[in-house]
Write a structure and sequence with these properties.
single chain, 429 residues, alpha/beta, Gyrase A, domain 2, Four Helix Bundle (Hemerythrin (Met), subunit A), Rossmann fold, 3 domains, six-stranded mixed β-sheet, five-stranded mixed β-sheet, 14 helices, 11 strands, 47% helix, flat
Length: 429
């Protein structure tokens, strides 16, 4: 393979910048700039020089010998000062050696995958970890990056291969007397795998919410105090507020970190019958987004007002503009902050409970592959229970289930998902 290089840290001014070089000529490239490369496993300060002997920077140089490196190849990292000018000059000097080329986005991680340092699920976990903004996102991504999904698949695969082997034995010796009925053992192998798959599939939606963010919609009639409440929650003037009914015409979104959970709060158009065509569009959008929200907070204009939407478990009803109605127990005010802390606590408790289910499958792709595998296992179990005449069909269903599980971690059909995954990576990763 070519030797590649790129800035591995974020571009811009910083105290330190890390430039990564990977490939068969990595040590040679680093030696051309630093004079010599430290022994593997050590870090040494080196003076970096360009091809004309000009002083580029003083950098900490670290060497990693393949396959014991991130990419599985020889890797050298140059920890330079983080000024944009320094980084540009060092990158230019590396390119001038003609021993390496600039890496493409995600190419370091792709090489780690190709050299069996990671599986596809771990690559997805790494992408999620890079994008993580909240504690829940970090923990979830790190669980996948650490190989949790791959370990689960290996356990399932071992059981399914054992079950398939038992069935194959009965097929191979169909004309002879098989001393033991394999149905009980096959059933005992398939049952826990199917239970695990159902648990993981059920948790994918919540895992996706942790990754992409929960949604909380604030609903109510015009001038119920929705936009003022949004501004209080956001800590800034995210929405225009006025005494004129129908000021909010579209859905306004504010991203928040709520006790480590990513939450998007939606301010919506006031719900009412309107003759204004533009306002009606906003109201339709409000209802649509409310249907997809995880929690809806309905602000009453007057005590006892009935929400104009069908409420669900977990939805919250409060009296808006509580500063004008008195300090009632279920009132809230975005002006004075009345009831805001209680609302935040209630939202956090509800969403934390939903997010408490610890699963390893975190992407729709994972859920789809597991669902396909489960369907094959259900069909295979039915064939097993149908008797020895259906053994060949049962074995084929098990092989299909194994293939779908293999696709989770990239044993097969890997090219189908790599393009989408690596398009999310930055240049130095």
């Amino acid at each position: 393979m070519d030797t590649i290089f790129a800035l591995a840290t974020a571009p811009g001014k910083a105290g330190v910048a890390v430039i990564r070089i990977s490939g068969p000529a990595a040590f040679g490239v680093a030696g051309a700039l630093a004079g010599s490369v430290p022994s593997v496993g050590t870090a040494r300060l080196r003076k970096l020089l360009d091809g004309q002997g000009g002083h580029l920077d003083d950098a900490l140089v670290l060497a990693f010998q393949g396959p014991r490196s991130f990419t599985g190849e020889d890797v050298v990292e140059l920890h330079t000062h983080g000024s944009p000018a320094t980084v540009r000059s060092v990158l230019a000097a590396i390119g001038a050696t003609d021993l390496a080329r600039m890496a493409e986005p995600g190419e370091f991680t792709r090489r780690a995958l190709e050299n069996d340092r990671m599986d596809v699920a771990q690559v997805e976990g790494l992408a999620d970890l890079i994008d993580a903004e909240t504690e829940a996102q970090r923990v979830q991504a790190l669980r996948v990056l650490s190989g949790g999904l791959g370990q689960l698949v290996e356990q399932w695969r071992e059981n399914l291969l054992r079950a398939a082997a038992l069935l194959e034995v009965t097929i191979d010796f169909a004309d002879e007397e098989v001393p033991v009925d394999v149905t009980p053992e096959v059933t005992s192998l398939l049952t826990p795998v199917m239970a695990d798959l159902r648990r993981e599939i059920a948790g994918v939606d919540v895992a996706e919410r942790i990754r992409d963010g929960f949604e909380v919609a604030i609903l109510g009639a015009p001038n119920a105090g929705k936009s003022t409440l949004l501004n209080m929650l956001a800590g800034r003037e995210a929405a225009i507020t006025s005494d004129i009914a129908g000021t909010t015409r579209d859905v306004i979104e504010v991203r928040m970190d709520l006790r480590g959970l990513p939450v998007t709060v939606l301010d919506t158009a006031g719900l009412r019958e309107s003759g204004d065509a533009v306002e009606r569009i906003g109201i339709d959008r409000a209802r649509t987004r409310a249907e997809g929200a995880d929690i809806r907070v309905f602000l009453q204009s007057e005590p006892g007002e009935v929400p104009p939407i069908s409420m669900r478990d977990g939805d919250i009803v409060l009296l808006g503009k509580g500063d004008l109605h008195g300090n009632t127990e279920c009132a809230i005010s975005g002006v004075t902050g009345l009831g805001v802390s209680s609302l935040i606590d209630q939202l956090a408790d509800t969403l934390s409970t939903r997010a408490a289910r610890q699963v390893t499958a975190t992407h729709a792709r994972h859920g789809e592959a597991m669902a396909d595998s489960l369907r094959s296992l259900v069909a295979g179990m039915d064939e097993v229970q149908a008797g020895p005449d259906r053994t060949e069909l049962a074995a084929e269903h098990l092989r299909s289930a194994i293939r779908r599980l293999d696709s989770l971690i990239g044993r097969i059909d890997v090219e189908m998902v790599l393009g989408e995954i690596f398009s999310r990576f930055c240049l130095g990763k």
